[in-house]
Every structure is written in C-alpha cells, then in structure tokens.
Amino acid sequence: MAYDASISGPYSGRPAFDQYLYVRRDQTQARRSSYAYEVRARNPERRTQTYALSNFPLAVNVGGQIFEHEHNLDFRGGQEYITLATGSTGWFDHNSAGELTIVIDTWHGPAGVFGSADPAPLYFVTDTIKPETPTGLSATRVSDSQQTLNVTVPWGAVKMVWQRSTDDGAWQTLATVTASGTYTDKSTQANRKYTYRVAASNGGGQGPWSSTATIYTSPAAPTGVSAARTAADDIRVDASGRPAWATSFNIRDGGALVASGVSLPWTHVDPNPADTHTYTVQGVVSGIAGAWSSPSNTVQLISPPSPPQSLSPNGAVAPSDESVTLSWVHSPVDSSPQSAYELQYRAPGGAWTVLTGTTAQARAVTLPVGAVEWQVRTKGAHPDWSPWSATASFTVIDRPGVAVVQPADTWDASTLTAVWTWFQAQGRPQSAWRVELLDATGTVVESRTGSGATATLQLATRLTEGAWTVRAQAATGEVWSAWGVEAFTVAFTPPVEPVLTGVWDESQGGVQITVSGEQFGVAVLDEGAWYAEVGV
What pLDDT shows up at residue 493? Predict the structure, then answer.
C-alpha cells in the first residue's frame, strides 16, 4: 500500500522502537478529499520483549481532526511492527489551484518502560488533485487566418493546454499557457476544417479534455464547372473538383444568382431558350461562402448551329485516281451534336451536286480532273439548318509520273548522280522529291528528301561492284507520284598496264620517273574492292 505522507519518532524509553504514522488520500469528491491513516509501532531489529503493555492511549491529528485510540504494545513474538490504529478522516477542501495544505501529527504514551513517542508534525503540502473539465468551448471565425476560442476555465486550472485537429487529422498541441478562458489561433488557412479541444492542468497533472468545437474556413473555388443541355431542354450544372468541406453551393447564370444552398449536380429548370447560359459556382460551409469558380462552357438551348468550320481539303490538290474525303467540324451553339448534314460541290460556275447524311462529319467522293468548290451546312437539335459554310476550293489533278534516267543498266563509277524526269498532265511543277538507294538485298542504305523542282541528286554512298537499285518519287502539293525504279549493276573496267619512263636529272643527281596511263576508265583497288577513278 502506498502512502502519500508519513512521520516517525522513537519511544523515549526504548529508542530501538519507533512509532510511525502513514497518511494517504482515500477519496476525492467535488474539489475535496478524505484521508486514511495507519499508526504502527515498529521493531526494526525484531527484538523480543518478555512482557506486554496493555491499552496504552495514542492520538492522531490529520488537518486538525483528532482521533484517539488504545492498543496493546506486545513485542514478545519479535514481530517487525504492530498496527496500533487505523481510520479515515472527514472531508478537506482543496483551494482553487487544487492544492491542500494540512498538518499530520501523532503521539503515544506514556507506555510503561517504553515511555512516550511523539514524532515531529509534518505540514502535508504536496497533495494536489487534477483540475475539472473545461466547459462551454466555442470557436468564432475572425478570418481565414485567425480564429478566437472561448471556454469556461474549470476549478483547479493553473494552465490550459490547447489542441487542434486539421481536416480530421491527428491532434496537435497549439499552446500550453496560463489559465485563461480565451485563446486566439492565428495559424489557420482557407479551405480547411479545424477542430479544437482544451484541458486544464496543475501540479496534480492534466484534467480531462473538454468537448470539441469545430470551425471551417472559406471553401476553395470549385473547378471543372460544366453545363450540359438535358433531353428536357433544362441545363445540368456540375463541377468535377469540389471543395473538400463545402456542404452546399451557390450558382450564378452570368451575373444573376439562380440557386443558393443547393447540391451538385444541379439542374437549371426552364432556362430562357433565347439566352446563352454560362455558369459559375461557389462553395458554402457553415454560412461561409468561398471564391467563385471560373465560368463553365456556354449553352444555348435549341438553337441552329453556326456554319461548319475547318473544311478540308481547301486550297490544295487531290489525285484523280482515288476518292477525295471532304471533312468539316460541326459548330453547335446549344452544345447539341450534329444530326444531319447537306453537302454540295461543283466546278466553279457549274451546277451543284448535293449529298446528304446524318451524324458523320466527312464524305468520300470521286471527282473528275479540274477545279472544285464545295460547302456544307449542318443541323443539331434545332430543326433549322445552320448557314452554309464558307466555300472551300481545291483542284483534282492527274497523278504525276517520275522516271529514273540515270544510271542505266550498268554503271562503272564508285559514285552515283541520280537523274529523273518529271511529268504532270496538267503541267503542275514538282514541289518535293524523295530518292532512295537499295543494295542487292533490297535494304535501303541511303534515303534523301527535299523540296523544289530539282531532278538531280549526288548520292553520298560509295558504290561497290554488284547489283543496286535507285528509286525516285516526286510530288506536286500533296499528290505524290509512284516510285520510279531503276536496277543497275556496278562493274569497274580494270586499268591498263601503266608506262614508266625514267630520265636522268643531273641537277638532282637522280632519275625522274613518270607513270602514265589512260585518262579515263581506270580503276583502283581499295581495301579489297575496285573503285572507278577519273584523271590518272
């Protein structure tokens, strides 16, 4: 058993024997405590007495409450101690800091040969009980960055421990300060949920936590706000990014507030079909409205579309040997998809050929050689057509042709200049070209491209004897020719035997040797391969 305080003193006639008083807190109730006590006569050396003393008086004083007892003093068995008295006090009130200062004292005897025991009194000043629970905690919003907390300071409080949880996270201590009923939190931010609690403390420890108080700061602006027409010609408004703690939303159509305190998605019923509708959304929590979102897309109900855009082809050429795909982009005003189209084309100044369809935004047509102009119009949910698009124009031409004229079937040089011819029936110029060199396995070993009307290209690859292929392709606008292909064989003519001429040069004191041979068609062996050389 643990005791909160004790005093002791020897018997005057038998100093080897002591009297002890132990006192501990027994109960605590409504700011007051009661104490239990026990008085012992101790025999630390376990001496054996040959006699016993009967019913000698003793008294206990705990905080001014006096308790009298009688007990035998019998150590004939050599026991370590004898319990002389036990008991409990009445109630003692603690002060406003939870502290209680009392005095404890005891005396025994005189008891025959033992004499008297009278330990020195002790001022028992360390008994402090924990504070009570703070009550009435409230949080008042000053701004997004500052909140004021108020609470009723409980009995026994010396200090206050303030804690905060952010967005339902772990508790964190903000401050431990001298007991006060007000605390200001200046470290908050927008778009957060803050929950607070407080406990009082003193020398006896920390008391219970208060109930919690929660406050919200301004919600963030919603993001990804969208508006879409419904089948009933209403408009459904939603936001893909909603503030974490917003419990409702305000909605504006243009500058006019059309809904407040609503949930998302929200439907704007019977909006004016003659107006355009663009929405912004604002989050609200605990009566605090956040920032307005960026505007949504714009919706107009049951309105004819605008003229189609991005017509293709336009200003280009197309080949006559394949169909031409005419494409466009539907341009709704009311966000409804394309439901029909009407397309017309003609030679300039001629009669229109009209084609119709539904939801496709492209149409393949076969056209003769010549200039073509065309336009298109579309429908959405509204029964009326859009205006005709701007007129697009292009020219259908015969596919050009390319023929490789150099090299011929055989070639006797190590470098090659490819030459090709260009033909286009309508006389359109060459605007781009491609040339490729392939080895005997069909692998492309060099590929070159360029723009303009050139028909000659010096290839960089050094040729060896054997089979090769060169091919060329050219275009006018976006219309390319087929490949012009020429297969050829590289075979070098071996050089003639050189002629050496020697002439004595007296000034040099030696023979000047001259090597001569044919000027053209000679060959040189380089690392096991023959290459043609010119001008030996």
Answer: 79
Kindly list the distances between the CA atom of residue 348 and the CA atoms of 311, 312, 345, 392, 405, in Å, as whole numbers in the listed order. Answer: 17, 17, 9, 11, 39
Q: For the segment 477-507, what is each residue's pLDDT rounded down to a tens digit?
A: 999 999 999 999 999 877 677 777 888 888 8
Contacts 24+ apart (CB under 8 A), 18-25: 18/42, 18/44, 18/117, 19/58, 19/84, 19/106, 19/108, 19/117, 19/119, 20/81, 20/119, 21/60, 21/104, 21/105, 21/106, 21/119, 23/62, 23/104, 23/124, 25/127
pLDDT at 48: 87
Asked if residue 297 lies in contact with residue 278, where contact means CB atoms within 8 angstroms, the answer is yes
Domains of the chain by start residue, with CATH:
5-128 (2.60.40.10), 135-216 (2.60.40.10), 223-300 (2.60.40.10), 306-397 (2.60.40.10), 401-490 (2.60.40.1930), 499-533 (no CATH)
Tell me which amino acid residue 354 is: V
- The answer to whether 80 and 52 have CB atoms below 8 angstroms apart is no
Yes or no: say if 412 and 387 are a contact pair by the CB < 8 Å rule.
no
Q: Could you tell me how many residues make up the chain?
A: 536
What pTM value is reported for the model? Answer: 0.52
User: How many CB atoms within 10 Å of residue 8?
Assistant: 15
